[in-house]
Amino acid sequence: MSISSLPTNPSAQSGRDHERQIKDYGQHPLKAKDATTGADITDASRVAQIWVKDEPQVRQYSSSENALRTLEVLEKAGKTIRVVYAQNRESGIKLSQARPASCATRREG
Known about the structure:
Blueprint (H helix, E strand, L loop, with lengths): L9 H5 L3 H5 L25 E5 L6 E3 L2 H13 L4 E7 L6 E5 L11
Antiparallel strand pairs: 1-2, 1-3, 3-4
């Protein structure tokens, strides 16, 4: 696709008001399913995510416990983990742990 064939206003084409959205700092409901159980995630205060290299979608989890169990399985399978996110229940802030390939292996001991 050439640059000249790109839409001049892609947000208008999608039906979204991009300018309004980038100024909106409000919380929005999470609409996702737990990657382990397949159940809807209903409590965003416990949500966690794992970003796996070369996977097209972020893995969502209803709890950090589910995410950490899966993380161990992924690492044993040799998957490269880009980052792990967990929600702080008290502050609501998303916490992250970057996991570059050189740090992805857990140390024994």
